[in-house]
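From the shared-data thread, chain only:
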Amino acid sequence: MAFWEISLNTDDFVGDTTAQLATYSANKFTNFTINDNSYARHHGNTWGWLFTADWNQAIVSKFIVMPEAYAGGANVFKADLRWTFNPGVAASNVRWEVYVESWTPAETGVDVLQTPKWDIANVTTTAVNTSPFRPMQSIVNLTAKDSIIALDSFRIGIRRDPDHVDDTSSAEVVLYAARLYEEA
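Structure, as tokens:
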């Protein structure tokens, strides 16, 4: 099994030193908006990306090269999201979507900088603990992964979809860690 940590520092996401959030529609992320309150949200000693319950927010990573050790094929590619929330809320759910976009070296006929080609959403819904600031975990099976293979360049988009019927939580959610891995 191979693991890849995804840093959640602002330097590792679009926008470099300032958090940028995007909206997702028509199979691409658009409308990047600088929002200083979106990153550096501090709850105790935890810093992370803030996702509110009243706006479809997403973060998009910079491109990463898929390690040669990535087997693909029958193995399951997964995203492990670690998050917390505030305030305490009644029993409810948070819906996470993870998107993958990959580019193969020497791919022809496209402009990597101008032609995004995100695959469809990979989705999970997680029940929220009613006590605030509890560590939560959501595992997302990345079955829609844009045909990624070893040594492809790829990036991920992570989105909370509070408008979806499955996201019933009014809590602010703070994503503080993420990793990608494959499981045989």
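The chain has no helices and 13 strands.
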